């Protein structure tokens, strides 16, 4: 098994900065924007995007709200895996009704997590629009779901493993690909 | 977790993990849509051989909030009154396809019999068996104490150093039994106060200290005073001379409330005999957690049902507790 680093710290920061600008562009500013990270690493990434947005010129940092959305209870594979402990969901004051929600996750793979997240959002309110930002898109979708903002597209084989490590949680910023023996 | 029969089966980590899941469940209770699809398609049977209001309603609300189907069964008006045995009832429930059975029974050990018998493969939750245990009550008590002490910073914490005094009918109380072990597991120090006639034989094997004088216990300034109900349905012998005398000596009245530190909690599992073991003033004071205990009960029971039913089905014969994965 070999682990190859595909994104270093600087790459991750650049990707998040670009995503932040793209979010501002598509939303025409930061009004009514709610960033919801999907635990565990999506929450840290959402906070970072929130910080970057707040530092961009002409953006009122107080209009940016960041929260966490746990999707454990909405997964379709609950009865196929060992019991999962849920994580806290934090919805910013003001809720999500009429807002533009940007879901933030580390890796987009089958799309099933995002399907669960859409169901969870449905129970919390009615946003004006839901967008999806992901640090890595590795393909192999099993549902008609795509990301609006992508840090890096990484074509992978299903036997490979993508590890996203984030400073706040793992003490280091990097994305590695671990995988099947090179052909 | 395969079954929840006794708090003695819970390790400290498992107990804290369960309380943490309950925190998430209580967030669900505060939302506009108080329902999550976690247990869709599962069937929970409430099998109640003994009267109950809050426990049965609480389990029913918990199962419904998790989108499980609920079947309520009470012994009155069922074939049990025609003499059907526990075995036949259990096999009937198995044939219906129950995934979990919440059982309350007047005989101590009935849930254990159901879990170990092989009559039914469902997860068994003990909702009170005779004078033995009532684990979800103890869990919700621990949850209530933890929330009052630590507020939103409760997750991951135990009850280390908390002093809890349990007062009243220890002999017949399954709440006291479950609490004594659970609270000790979580790091609390438990003291029980009761008339000598209402203490069980072998109390010295419990992880508690024993006293007979409530005034002495109140003067020690415990963090929590937990009053137990005088169970008139189990008072078949002369355990104390008169209700009035019991109330004078072991009832938590306004005057004792005044001597308790202002930050201490007054708990009661309900239903209360106002004026006997607890005065109306104490029951309705801001220090009382009686109603919080009821609403926290739903969160705890949601957590228990979730941990019991959501994961891969363990085959019977495997261990009673499975680790929770992050």
**What does the main sheet of chain A amount to?**
5 strands, parallel
CA distance, first residue to last residue of chain A:
13 Å
Q: What is the CATH topology descriptor of chain A?
A: Rossmann fold
Say which CATH homologous superfamily of the largest domain in chain B is assigned: Aspartate/ornithine carbamoyltransferase
Q: Helix tally of chain B?
A: 11
Total domains of chain B, how many? 2
Number of helices of chain A: 4
CATH architecture of chain A: 3-Layer(aba) Sandwich
Overall geometry of chain A comes to globular
Estimated helix fraction of chain A: 25-40%
Briefly, what CATH class of chain A? Alpha Beta
Mean pLDDT of chain B: 91
Helix content of chain B: 25-40%
Overall geometry of chain B comes to: globular
Mean residue pLDDT of chain A? 91
End-to-end Cα distance of chain B: 14 Å
- Poorly predicted tracts of residues of chain A: none
Identify the strand order in the major beta sheet of chain B.
7-6-5-8-9
- Topology order of chain B in helix (H) and strand (E) letters: HEHEHEHEHEHEEHEHHEHH
Give the percentage of residues in beta strands of chain A: 25-35%
Beta-strand proportion of chain B: 5-15%
Short account of what is shown:
The complex is a heterodimer of chains A (183) and B (326). Chain A has 183 residues and is α/β, with parallel strands linked by helices.
Task: Provide a descriptive summary of the structure in words.
The complex is a heterodimer of chains A (183) and B (326). In chain A, the strands form 2 sheets. Chain A has a 5-stranded parallel beta sheet, with helices on both faces. In chain A, strands 1-8-7 form a 3-stranded antiparallel beta sheet. Helices cover 28% and strands 27% of the residues of chain A. Chain A has one domain (9-76, 85-158): Rossmann fold (3-Layer(aba) Sandwich). Chain A contains 4 helices and 8 strands; from the N terminus they run βαβαββαβββαβ. Chain A has helices spanning 9-27, 41-55, 112-124, 167-170; strands spanning 2-7, 33-37, 65-68, 100-108, 129-137, 149-153, 161-165, 174-179. The model of chain A has no long low-confidence stretch (mean pLDDT 91). In chain A, strand 2, helix 2 (41-55) and strand 3 (65-68) form a beta-alpha-beta unit. In chain A, helix 1 (9-27) packs across helix 2 (41-55). By secondary structure, chain A is of the alpha/beta class. With 326 residues, chain B is an alpha/beta fold. Chain B has 2 domains: 7-134 and 293-309, Rossmann fold, CATH 3.40.50.1370; 135-289, Rossmann fold (3-Layer(aba) Sandwich), CATH 3.40.50.1370. Chain B is 37% helix and 14% strand. Chain B has 11 helices and 9 strands. Chain B has a 5-stranded parallel beta sheet with strand order 7-6-5-8-9. In chain B, helix 2 (54-65) links the parallel strand 1 (43-48) and strand 2 (69-74). Chain B is globular and about 55 Å long. Residues 315-326 of chain B have low confidence and may be disordered. The A-B interface holds A 40, 70, 72-74, 78-89, 119, 123-125 and B 1, 17, 20-21, 23-24, 27-28, 31-33, 35-38, 66, 155, 306-307, 310-313, 322-326.
């Amino acid at each position: 098994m070999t682990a190859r680093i595909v994104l270093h710290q600087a790459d991750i920061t650049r990707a998040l900065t670009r995503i932040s600008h793209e979010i501002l562009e598509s939303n025409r500013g930061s009004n009514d924007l709610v960033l919801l990270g999907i635990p565990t690493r999506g929450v840290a990434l959402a906070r970072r995007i929130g910080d970057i947005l707040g530092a961009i010129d002409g953006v009122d940092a107080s209009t940016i709200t960041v929260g966490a959305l746990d999707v454990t209870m909405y997964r379709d594979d609950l009865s196929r895996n060992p019991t999962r402990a849920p994580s806290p969901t934090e919805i910013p004051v003001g809720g999500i009704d009429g807002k533009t929600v940007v879901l933030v996750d580390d890796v987009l793979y089958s799309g099933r997590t995002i399907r669960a997240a859409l169901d969870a959002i449905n129970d919390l309110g009615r946003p004006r629009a839901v967008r999806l930002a992901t640090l890595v898109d590795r393909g192999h979708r099993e549902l008609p779901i795509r990301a609006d903002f992508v840090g890096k597209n990484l074509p992978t084989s299903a036997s490979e493993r993508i590890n996203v490590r984030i400073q706040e949680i793992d003490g280091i910023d990097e994305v590695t690909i671990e995988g099947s023996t090179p052909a | 977790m395969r079954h929840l029969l006794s708090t003695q089966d819970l390790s400290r980590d498992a107990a804290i993990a369960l309380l943490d899941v309950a925190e998430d469940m209580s967030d669900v209770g505060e939302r506009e849509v108080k329902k999550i699809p976690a247990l869709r398609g599962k069937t929970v049977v409430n099998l109640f051989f003994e009267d109950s209001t809050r426990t049965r309603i609480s389990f029913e609300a918990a199962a419904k909030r998790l989108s499980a189907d609920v079947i309520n069964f009470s012994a009155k008006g069922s074939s049990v009154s025609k003499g059907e045995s526990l075995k036949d009832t259990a096999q009937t429930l198995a044939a219906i396809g129950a995934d979990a059975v919440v059982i309350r029974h007047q005989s101590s050990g009935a849930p254990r019999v159901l879990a170990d018998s092989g009559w039914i493969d469902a997860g068994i939750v003990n909702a009170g068996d005779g004078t033995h245990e009532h684990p979800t009550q103890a869990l919700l008590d621990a949850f209530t104490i933890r929330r009052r002490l630590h507020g939103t910073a409760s997750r991951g914490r135990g009850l280390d150093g908390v002093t809890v005094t349990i007062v009243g009918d220890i002999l017949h109380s399954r709440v006291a039994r479950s609490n004594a072990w659970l609270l000790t597991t979580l790091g609390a120090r438990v003291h029980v106060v009761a008339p000598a006639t209402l203490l069980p034989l072998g109390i010295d094997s419990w992880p508690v200290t024993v006293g007979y004088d409530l005034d002495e216990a109140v003067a020690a300034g415990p963090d929590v005073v937990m009053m137990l109900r005088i169970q008139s349905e189990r008072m078949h012998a002369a355990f104390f001379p008169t209700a009035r005398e019991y109330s004078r000596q072991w009832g938590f009245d306004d005057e004792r409330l005044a001597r308790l530190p202002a930050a201490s909690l007054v708990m009661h599992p309900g239903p209360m005999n106002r004026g006997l073991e607890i005065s109306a003033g104490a029951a309705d004071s801001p220090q009382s957690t009686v109603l919080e205990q009821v609403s926290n009960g739903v969160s705890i029971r949601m957590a228990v049902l979730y941990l019991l039913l959501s994961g891969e089905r363990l085959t019977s014969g495997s261990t009673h507790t499975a680790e929770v994965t992050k």
